[in-house]
Amino acid sequence: MKLYNHISTWAFAGLLAFTGCSQEESLEGSSSLQGFQISVTDAGFQNLSEGRATDENFKTTFVKGDAIGVYAVENGQVVEGVANRKFTMNEKGEWDLEGNPIEYDSERFKNITFYAYYPYQADEESIQFDAAAEDPFASLVSNWQIAADQGGTKYTQSDLMTSSSKAEDGRLQGKVSFTMLHEMALAVLKMPNLVYDFTNGGLDDYSLNVAPKELLINDVKTTPYYDAASGTYMALVKPETNYSISGTYQGAKEMAFSAAGSLAGGKAKMYTINDANKLDYTLNIGDYLCADGNLVSVNDGTVPDNAIGVVCYVGNPEPHVTHPNNYTETNDALYRDYPNCTHGLVLALKNARDGQWDGGAFNSTSSSTRSPAYCDWLASDEEWNGLLVPCNTEANGALKNDPESMFPAFLGYNNTLVMTMCYEGKGPQNSCNNAYTYLMNYRNEVAVPSSVTPWYIPSVVCWNEVAKSSSVINKSISKLGEDKGEELVSVSSGTAKNHYWTSTQRNWATQWTHGIDGGRYTQASNKGSLAGHFRMMLAF
Question: Which residues pair with 208 in a beta bridge?
């Protein structure tokens, strides 16, 4: 089960469909057997903010492998054959009934109440289902144990939900609709941001979500569930029971927080932690970007274990900012998709690989097989033409051999987006298939924080900037050790290997490459026959 934060009152979480021993219904319709349906709806947690109810519900949706248990009760007794029946969601979003089918009896079902709970428990004795009680799940709720580790998928295993329902009449005759109610309560932490106040002139503040360094619920160390969509940390607590929350976090300095409360089942309360402190920071080329979004200065003498890249440019890299005469906000893809990435560029620590191979051809098309360049689709695309910049220098005969003048800005993100859209349906895959594989391999291998762009293939101008500071960048990479970083390799003009592929095209057959040497070296290499390195970049 996955957790989502929706602004809505009801949402279908899944549809259970199963069929009994079906026969044609008689005219009387009193005792014949036919198929029936069960729907499952999550009512969500009612979110309380400072005691005021809101319409924001923290909802769940079922995924493959989730299972619920179903009981049927008639006249205070469990109906034979419908006691803790297990339904499991399959890959199609349908629910499979384990064991014998359940037979639908239209007349008898009028007198039956159905009960459902999540998550399914195989040990029926632990459920202590009391068919004669007003709430047959009362013992289950009272004795329910909430795990201290609620991280990831473990959260929903502590999120006890129950429901009761009757079979519907009329047009929906036989349908049983369950509205699942959360029996536990939910404490939600909204952590403050860590704000880097750059001492460099002209740089906006850089903000990061802060995670609890330590979280205690009733003095028990607890791992909360992190909801990326809302940026909150969630922990289930026992209902109608006093609880205490305490913990620490690392902001501009180490801080502590605490709260206490009591909530009814199905209620959630948001605890917002405010911190006005900012971290004074001077951003330099050679600084490390870490997996959690934090920055570590090259001057600190500290080499972070979780570094994912090295700062290679300081300043707003958005094309409409660096070259306002050439680009606008409309065709600036970096600005449009990541408007807050205004602080600089970061180079990856290692080359991307295709399996064991470090480097290869840009695509699989031979020099004798002509195929469109991967930006050609833009010219005739009514939706995207004008929103992205073509990345083929052949379009201008006067500048076809001058990629820096033709495309003077940092267009790596733009070019990579054009390329991936081509591969994913806009154009021929063989124009960029190898590059796409290397790109996706690296994106899957090295995760990035939410404060940055995805990894992309640098443009010629991006590589020029790296080349200017290659010695500083290599010094920072070398401190990480060979297992974590690969220093940049410089090659001379005319060398047909060990160059770095750019995302700037020369024409359908060749791609601009960079050799680092001299700071501005580029040459056009055949995309399908010459091997080069793929080194990724991102903006933050």
Answer: 194
Q: How far apart, in whole angstroms, are the C-alpha atoms of residue 35 and residue 167?
A: 12
CA-to-CA distance for 8 and 58, rounded, in angstroms?
10
How far apart, in whole angstroms, are the C-alpha atoms of residue 527 and residue 22? 62
Domain co-membership, 191 together with 178: no
Q: How many residues does the chain have?
A: 540
pLDDT of 52 strictly over 70:
no
Are 218 and 80 contained in the same domain? no
The pLDDT value recorded for residue 399 is: 93
Assign 148 to helix, strand or coil: coil
Output the pLDDT for position 117. Answer: 97
Q: Among candidates 371, 360, 351, which has minimal Cα distance to 422?
A: 371
Looking from the CA of 217 toward its CB, the CA atoms found within 13 Å total 24
pLDDT digits (tens, 9 = 90+) for 268-297: 999 999 999 999 999 999 999 999 999 999
Nearest to 14 by CA among 60, 48, 62: 62
Question: Beta-carbon neighbour count of residue 150 at 10 Å?
Answer: 23
Q: 371 versus 240: which is more confidently predicted?
A: 240
For residues 68 and 87, give the distance between their C-alpha atoms in angstroms, rounded to a whole number. Answer: 5
How would you write 345-397 as a 3-class SS string? EEEEEEECEECCEECECCCCCCCCCCCCCCCHHHHHCCCCECCECCCEHHHCC
User: With 70 as the cut, is the pLDDT of residue 167 above it?
Assistant: yes
Four-point Cα dihedral 516, 520, 526, 532, nearest 10: 10
* Start-to-end CA span in the chain (Å): 32
Tokens 């900037």: give the residue.
Answer: 465
Task: Report the pLDDT value the prediction gives residue 1, as an integer from 0 to 100.
Answer: 53
Burial of 531 (0-12, 13-18, 19+ CB in 10 A): middle
Do 149 and 218 belong to one domain?
no
Report the DSSP pairing between strands 243-250 and 161-166. Answer: unpaired
Confidence of residue 411 (pLDDT cuts 50, 70, 90): very high
- Res 417 pLDDT > 90: yes
What residue has token string 């680092």? 516
- Residues 293 and 274 both lie in one domain: no
Per DSSP, the three-state class of 344 is: strand
Contact 351, 477 (CB under 8 A): no
Three-state secondary-structure class, residue 215: strand
Of the residues 278, 312, 342, which one is the last residue of a structural domain?
278
Q: How many domains does the chain have?
A: 3
Give CA–CA dist 482/205, Å, rounded: 33
Residue ranges making up the domain that contains 106:
2-183
User: What's residue 155's pLDDT?
Assistant: 94
Q: pLDDT tens, 328-382?
A: 999 999 999 999 999 999 999 999 998 877 888 999 876 566 778 999 999 999 9
